[in-house]
Design a protein that fits this description.
Layout lengths: L18 H5 L6 H14 L1 H14 L1 H10 L1 H14 L1 H12 L2 H20 L6 H16 L4 E5 L14 E5 H7 L8 H22 L1
Antiparallel strand pairs: 1-2
Length: 207
């Protein structure tokens, strides 16, 4: 019976003992192995970054092929990882946003998003503007964390229009991020039709 040399837990191959560790008789459970790996990456951040960058360049084609062939499994793993490590990821993102690089990226992303939003905001009636404002007001005054979410993300062609907006709990919207269920044809079609009708109406009123 093999045990972890750090925490003395019984090692079960394929469960808490990875195939790689077992292959080379490295008696570390997955938890202890992850801790050791994180410490090494932190202590050798510069070297690791250079190595990873070069490795991705050399293996770009193989990486792209693997991601295409395993897109569903990768997405499932990422969702589970995000759920299991929500607190750690939130702390990491908060710390990163406070670095000069993080602030610069955040500002650039916000500016790009606002530009897309302006370009993808169709003509809206007074009632539609009021509906949008009401959603943002609700988001601001209600207890807890609420986000006004674009059902079809702005980055994927969605309109900044009431038909494409919904209120979501903050944690749900963070998990959703820029994902969009393109198979949800009902919502997508309704959003697209209403957006196009608004643009046509705007065009008709101008001429």
């Amino acid at each position: 019976m093999s045990k972890c040399r750090k925490c003395d837990v019984v090692l079960v191959r394929g469960e808490n003992w990875t195939e790689g560790m077992a292959k080379y008789n490295n008696y570390l459970c997955q938890t202890c192995g992850n801790i050791k790996s994180r410490k090494f990456r932190k202590a050798n951040a510069g070297h690791v970054a250079v190595y990873n960058r070069e490795w991705r360049k050399v293996n770009a084609e193989a990486i792209s092929k693997y991601r295409k062939e395993n897109a569903e499994a990768i997405a499932k793993y990422q969702r589970k990882y995000a759920e299991d490590n929500a607190k750690h990821l939130a702390e990491y993102r908060r710390d990163y946003r406070n670095t000069p690089e993080g602030r610069a990226k955040k500002n650039a992303a916000e500016q790009a998003r606002e530009a897309r939003k302006l370009a993808q905001t169709p003509w809206m009636s007074a009632a539609e503007y009021a509906e949008v404002e009401a959603m943002y007001l609700y988001n601001a005054v209600m207890p807890g964390t609420w986000h006004v979410d674009h059902i079809q993300p702005i980055s994927k062609g969605g309109l900044h229009h009431p038909s494409n907006l919904q209120l979501m709990r903050g944690e749900e919207n963070v998990r959703k991020h820029a994902r969009w269920d393109c198979c949800d044809q009902a919502k997508a079609a309704e959003s697209a039709i209403q957006g196009k009708l608004s643009l046509l109406l705007d065009h008709a009123q101008r001429f």
